[in-house]
Amino acid sequence: MPLERFSAAWREQYVSGDDVADNARDEGACVFCVLAEQSVDRETGVLWRGSDTFVVLNAFPYGSGHLLVLPRRHLSGLVDLNDEEYLNFSLAIRRTARALERAYGAEGMNVGMNLGQAAGAGIPKHLHAHVLPRWNGDTNFMTTIGEVRVLPESLASTWNKVHPYMEDEA
């Protein structure tokens, strides 16, 4: 199937004009910074907390078990982490992947980051990694044709399934 292309030259001003900083501006308090101070609890969605990282439910998941791993410190890029934060962030991603494997018995795992607004980050000013379990055939016509995701479980159910494995993981 050939890739259709169309021109969107009108966006040039948006991505390179004088007001580009305004287009990327955060409005209000950073939701991730607020969550970084919340307790590990089903109500907050926080699943685990380390010294400088934490894991939280994704409030807008692509699929069951979609979690976010974040540094507690408000920063936007991997290069902004000091060595200890980088190590702990990486270890937290591994902890999360293991917990999801144990909780869901997934056939695969997506781990990824959108670094910056241009890369598709929904909240570009606070670094975060997405970790979500996958299964063969887990996408269907609803996502492909209808641009709709069907989630077979609530966020509370996800928290209940994963939390015991987050605490157990060493």
How does this model look, in words?
By secondary structure, the protein is α+β, with helices and mostly antiparallel strands. It has a single domain (27-168), classed as HIT family, subunit A (2-Layer Sandwich), CATH 3.30.428. The protein contains 6 helices and 5 strands. The chain has a 5-stranded antiparallel beta sheet. β1 and β2 form a beta hairpin. The protein is globular, with a radius of gyration of 18 Å. Mean pLDDT is 81; it is low at 5-11 and 22-26.
The number of helical segments is 6
Number of domains: 1
Which spans have pLDDT < 50 for at least 5 consecutive residues? 5-11, 22-26
Distance between the termini: 47 Å
What is the top-level CATH class?
Alpha Beta
Strand content: 5-15%
Element layout with pairings:
Elements: H1 12-16, H2 20-23, H3 31-36, E1 46-49, E2 53-57, E3 67-71, H4 83-104, E4 108-112, E5 129-134, H5 141-144, H6 155-168
Antiparallel strand pairs: 1-2, 2-3, 3-5, 4-5
Relevant terms:
170 residues, alpha+beta, HIT family, subunit A, 6 helices, globular
What's the short story on this structure?
This protein has 170 residues and is of the alpha+beta class. The protein contains six helices and five strands. α4 packs across α6.
